[in-house]
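Lecture notes, unit on protein representations.

Consider one protein chain, 569 amino acids long.
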Amino acid sequence: MSTFDRRLSPAEDWIDQKGWTPPKHGIAPEIRLFGRWWNVGWLFLLLWVFLIIFFAVSTWFIETETGKAFVERYPGVLWHGPVMEAQGFPWWLRWEHYFNLFIMVLMIRSGITILADHPRLYWNVHCTPGTEWFRFNLPVPNMPYYTAKDDSVTIPGWLGLPGIRHSCGIARWWHFSGALFWSLNGLVFVIFLFATYQWQRLVPRSWEIIPNAVSMAVQYGSLHMPHENAWLRYNALQQLAYFAVVFIMAPLQIVTGLAMAPAVGNRLRRFSMLLHRQRARSIHFLNLLCFLGFVLIHVTFVFITGFRKNFNHIVFGTDEGSWIGFIWGMVGIGVIVLVWIAATWITMHRSRLVQRVGRLIVGRVTFLMEWFSPNSQYKESDISPHFWPNGTLPKRELWDRLLQNGTQRCTVKVFGKVEHPQELTIDQLREIGFREQITEHYCIQGWSGIAKWGGTPMAKLLERVQPDASAKYVVFYSHADGADGGRYYDVHTLSNMKHELTLLAYEMNGRPLNIYHGAPLRLRCENELGFKQVKWIEAIEFVEDYKKLGAGQGGYNEDHEFYSRRDPI
C-alpha cells in the first residue's frame, strides 16, 4: 500500500445525515419575466383568471348562432373505419398504463432532487449568475469562493428522492434506471399500438382534428359536457392530447435527457449548438410541467365524466358501472404510495445497495456512452464569462507551502505499474508536450461552462512512463481532502486516458490555472462529468484494480456520495 492509499478514508454504506451536507432551504420558485423576478404564485393567479375568462367566453360563444353552427359542424368526434375496430382497452395497454405511472413517480421525485443540486435554469450555455430565467434559491452572493455545492438546496423528504441536500449522485441511480424502464415501456407500447387497431385512437388522420378539438374545448369550457364514449373512441381533444404525450413529449424528454450528457454534447457538436445542456435542462423541466399538467387534467376528467366506468375501463377492461374497478384502482395507487415511502427508506438506509443495483441496471448502458469519444471544440468567443468553482480547497498551510517556489515548480508523482516512474514539475510536463483546447465542462449538479484549457496530453505522459500490461486503471490523488474528510481521489480507465482531449491542465483561458479551478494541476477528461476531473493533483498511480482503494467504488464521491464510477451522462 502506498503513502497515498493510507490517506484515503473509509465510507459508510448508508447516508449519515449528521455528516452530510447541512440542510439549506431555498425560496419559493421564481421566474424572470420582463426583466423582473416573479413568484410563480402569480402565474397560478393568472391561470385562474385565464380559466374564468375562458369559461365566460365559451359560455357566451356556444349560445350564439355562430357558436351553435360551429359545434354542429364540428361536433368534436372523428372516426374513420368501423366503430368496433379499436373498442375497449386490452390487457397490455392497461398494464403499460399502470407501469408508466409507477415509474414516472420515481423519476419525477428523483428528478426534483437532481434539479435542487443546481436550482437555477438558463437558456444560455454559460450559467453566469444573474442570467437564469428560473430559480428557487436566493441570488448568488458576491464572495470569493461560493461553489455550486454551496448553492444546492434541500427538498422536503416527502417530495424529493431522497430530497436531502446535495444527494444528486444517488438520485441519479433512481432517475436513470427509471428512464431506462420508462423508455423500454414506451417502446413496447408503440409496438403493440401499431400491431393492433389501438393506434386509431391516438393518431389523427385528418386536419379536421383541429377545429373539432377547438369545439370540444369550447364545450368543456361552457360546462356543457358533450356526450362521449372513450370505450369506443376518443374525442378530437383527447386524441390530440394523447398523440402529443406519446409521440412528441415523451421523445422530447428522452432527447433532452441525452443532450445533457458530456459524452454526447462534446461529440455531436452541431447537435449541442442547437440543443446545448442548459437549453436541454430548461426544455426538460418545461416538458415535465406539461406532463404534470396533462396528468392533472386527465385525472380530473376521469372523475367528472364517470369515474366508476372509467376505472373499470382501465383496470379490468370492462364497460361497466360497478365499484370494483375503482376499488382495485385505489389498491394499485396504494401500492405506489407504499413504494414512494419504501424508496425513501431504502435510499437513506441501504444507499450502497441502491448504487450497486443501479450499476447493474443502468451502469453498463451509461458506460457505453464513452464510445462517443469527444472531439468538439469551441471558439474563443464562446468562452464563458463565469465558470463555477467547486470542491473543497486544499488546506491553507499546504497551499502556502506549495506556492513557496511557484506553481510551475510544483511536482506531480507518477508511479505504480509503469516502466518509468517519474516526479515531474509543471515545466517538465510542458516539455513532454503542450496543447490547448476549448471545451465545455459538464458538472454532475447541472451547470456547465466553456473554457480554454492548456496542458500536457495524457497520451504523451503515457508514452513517457510506459504503463505495463497489467495496468488497467489510473488513479488521480488530490492535494485536497473531500467534504467528508480523507484525501480526494478518482479512478479512470486507462483506455479513456488515451484520448487526444484528455489533458493534464495547468492553464485556463490563456493564463496559469488559479487555485479555485485546480492549480497547480487538474485533469480534463471531456466525456466525463466534472467530479471525475480531479483538481489540485498531487500524484498519479497506475493500478490493476481499485477495489482496495477507499471504499472500493472507484473514487471519493463514488465512496461517500454513491456516484457512478464512470459518468459520461
